[in-house]
From TrEMBL:
SMART domains membership: TGc
Catalyzed chemical reaction(s): Hydrolysis of an N(4)-(acetyl-beta-D-glucosaminyl)asparagine residue in which the glucosamine residue may be further glycosylated, to yield a (substituted) N-acetyl-beta-D-glucosaminylamine and a peptide containing an aspartate residue
Gene3D superfamilies found in the cross-reference section: 2.20.25.10, 3.10.620.30
Protein name, UniProt field: Peptide-N(4)-(N-acetyl-beta-glucosaminyl)asparagine amidase
Gene Ontology cellular component list: cytosol; nucleus
Length: 373
């Protein structure tokens, strides 16, 4: 089999060489057309190679042993299983559209300056504004369920969810005691984004979770970015900017990938993006200083793992879809390799305030995200 494949490969090269020779023999005036044909043929061969490589998932053994031996790899794999296809849910997406003020959103997008080309970017900016200003609420401590005071709430501890809370994918319940009236308030941390349409409050986990569903509900290609140091945000693919663009709903932040390193002063090790079409290592886009040691897995194993998961996600896609996604990967890889170019590329405002915007001062300080370190 290997021999036959090799034979076919050599045969193709011989044929191409033959075509090039023919091209060189033609009269000058005919050359342009022939050149186009040859270029198209080369491109076609390249596409075939990309698709073949993606469809060839032969390293299952290495994957299995990595998952067995490395906890970080296990976590990444489990995140990919949970996140990559999570938001491809028509019913959930329809629920979002039922709950929001589409008229306000669309009229605000129309009112923004721009062209047809950057419509999607304007829509995402408006969704960030709407989500933060009109829809979702930040919650350090919940209001007291008895007297509605939120200033005098003290954490008592954590509990498991009750049956009702478990229905909505709640992992943990924080409990608070009100110093004014003595009542106990439960704050269930829901993971079900549809439940969040109703509760409309939370911290970065809830914000990112529901905002991902918002983006998907509008048919916007997006990814969930996970950072090992307890933060999550989103990215969407801008057909106008032709790249993945950072968006953080907690901060109403559009294309400001350096805010965590520069403005929050956050120390980070890994940032990984999870999407329908693959998993990508995007640390270089976000971690521009205060890099924590990347000692959880060898760089080679991490690259292998992400590529393995990505191949599996793309298994059932069409050839042209696989090729499109591979081209994007390649482009992103080059952009990230250039490193400092992200800053120049980013279109976000240059006067971002110091420190994190969401959350109370003491909460931000505890997390080292107030920009004061
Ligand atoms: Zn109270």
């Amino acid at each position: 089999m290997a021999c036959l494949a090799e034979y076919n490969k050599v045969n193709k090269v011989i044929k191409l060489n033959h075509q090039i020779q023919e091209y060189l023999n033609t009269k000058t005036m005919d050359r342009q057309l022939d050149f186009r044909q040859i270029a198209a043929r080369f491109l076609d061969l390249y596409k075939q190679k990309v698709v073949r490589t993606t469809r060839n998932i032969s390293d299952s053994q290495r994957f299995q042993s990595l998952i067995r031996s490395n906890e970080f790899a296990r976590n990444i794999f489990s995140l990919s299983q949970n996140l990559c296809s999570r938001y491809e849910n028509d019913i959930w997406q329809a629920r979002v559209l039922d709950c929001i003020d589409l008229e306000t959103i669309y009229s605000n997008v129309e009112a923004m300056q721009g062209s047809e080309d950057d419509y999607l970017d304007r829509l995402v900016k408006e969704l960030l504004r709407y989500f933060k200003r009109d829809f979702f609420k930040w919650c350090d401590k919940p209001e007291c369920s008895n007297c509605c005071d939120s200033e005098h709430q003290t954490v008592v501890g954590h509990q498991g969810p009750n049956a009702e809370e478990r229905r909505f994918d709640c992992g943990v319940v924080e409990t608070y005691k009100c110093q004014s009236c003595g009542s106990i308030t439960r704050f269930p941390r829901y993971n079900d984004p549809v439940k969040l349409l109703e509760t409309r409050k939370g911290r970065c986990g809830e914000w990112c979770n529901l905002f991902m569903l918002f983006l998907k509900a509008f048919g916007i290609e997006s990814r969930y970015v996970w950072n090992r140091e307890d933060h999550v945000w989103c990215e969407f693919y801008s057909t106008h900017l032709k790249r993945w663009v950072h968006v953080d709903s907690c901060e109403q932040s559009f294309d400001e990938p350096h805010i965590y390193s520069n403005n929050w002063g956050k120390h980070m090790s890994y940032a990984i993006a999870f999407g329908r079409g693959g998993c990508s290592e995007v640390s270089k886009r976000y971690i521009v200083k205060n890099q924590l040691p990347r000692d959880q897995i060898s760089e080679d194993d991490l690259q292998f793992l992400l590529s393995f998961i990505t191949k599996r996600l793309r298994m059932n896609l069409s050839d042209s879809e696989i090729y499109k996604l591979s081209c994007r990967d390649e482009q992103e890889r080059l952009q990230l390799m250039k490193g400092d170019s992200t800053d120049r590329q980013a279109t976000g405002s240059s006067s971002v305030p110091q420190g994190r915007q969401s959350g109370s001062a003491s909460w931000k300080s505890t997390r080292g995200e107030d920009g004061k370190r």
